Amino acid sequence: MSPRRPWPSWAPRERVRTRRRILRTVLICALGAVLVLAGLAVGAVWWGTSHYGDQVTRIPDAFPTETRPPKPPSHDGGTTFLLAGVDSRSKRPTTGSDATGRMWRYGAQRSDTLMLVHLADDGHTAYTMSIPRDSWVPIPGHGSAKVNAAFSWGGPPLLIRTVEQLTGTRVDHFGVVDWHGFKALTDAVGGVRITVPADAYDPEQDRHFSGGTQTMNGDEALAYVRQRHGLPGGELDRIKRQQQFLQCIVGEVRDEVSITDPLGTARMLDAITRAVSVDDRMSNTDLRHLVLGLRHLDASDARFRTAPVVRPQMIDGQYALILDKEKLRAQWRAVETGHGFGAGGDG
């Protein structure tokens, strides 16, 4: 048997270079596959938001035609939404694509939940100012009354005009959901996990709420956020519950909305589409930015305040809340110019 011939000196170096080329090829292929999958996912989300955006119920002529407040010169570029929860007692849904009843009829609905929400331009912070339903404010063309009467008397245009006049802000978009939509959206995310601070009983609804953390379905969550009787702070405590619910459900929606999970995103878009109606100025592109922007938010990114109240007062036999209009405007102007809620912190 002939002796083995020695490897040439360059052979080990060549084997190393070959392995490196193979590894580099594998890495390039893997990266390419990731980019392709990411592109497909982004494309699926893009298609989904366009598809479901076309199905969102738009409210025609939602904005007032009168002169509206300008945005401040130092505006942060974010978007301000006015969100209303209406107490329509219709047996049929009145908001969203599931609606079979009219969203608004004179005197038939009042906006018992009213929130200004400002999403900062960086997409990482959301500020919410709740306006109590019993706030006694000027309603254009109707004198002064509780703010929830504005929707009842004039639908979205009068409500938007009333809130803009009160706060000095300019609303970019409007969204409304009724009781049916609220329950459907809650059930669509599998219920909302809420911590009830203490045992409570609502004599008006004849319902008990046990203290502690629990997952509430649509019916339970609606009863929870509607309670004001039996709470020490009445309407103001109810607002705290509404803010708590909003914070929790945004977290649930955020967990479903993901570039890498287009099916989860589609489920959320379908649920939101079926429950909520929006102004006709909200384009599919606006909806896409809103939905995808939610994935950046978590509980620590949400800041909440309630419009500052000077005192409660009985007016014409009605319980009403008198607001500090100047303080309210100052706080909201601070939000719009990137300074949070101004004096006193973000809240």
What is the name of the CATH class?
A: Alpha Beta
Give the overall shape, derived from the CA principal axes. globular
Largest sheet: 7 strands, mixed
Q: For the record, what is the CATH homologous superfamily label?
A: LCP protein
In short:
This protein has 347 residues and is α+β, with helices and mostly antiparallel strands. The chain has helices at residues 11-53, 149-167, 179-188, 218-226, 235-256, 262-275, 284-293, 325-336; strands at residues 57-59, 79-86, 111-119, 126-130, 136-138, 144-146, 173-177, 192-196, 200-202, 207-209, 212-216, 277-279, 302-306, 309-315, 318-323.
What would you say this structure looks like, in words?
By secondary structure, this protein is of the alpha+beta class. The chain has one domain: Aminopeptidase, CATH 3.40.630. It has 8 helices and 15 strands. It has helices spanning 11-53, 149-167, 179-188, 218-226, 235-256, 262-275, 284-293, 325-336; strands spanning 57-59, 79-86, 111-119, 126-130, 136-138, 144-146, 173-177, 192-196, 200-202, 207-209, 212-216, 277-279, 302-306, 309-315, 318-323. It has a 7-stranded mixed beta sheet with strand order 1-12-7-2-3-4-13, sandwiched between helices. It has a two-stranded antiparallel ribbon with strand order 5-6. A two-stranded antiparallel sheet has the order 8-11. Helix 4 (218-226) packs antiparallel against helix 5 (235-256). The longest helix is centred in the N-terminal third of the chain and has 43 residues, at 11-53. The radius of gyration is 26 Å and the shape is globular. Mean pLDDT is 82; it is low at 28-44.
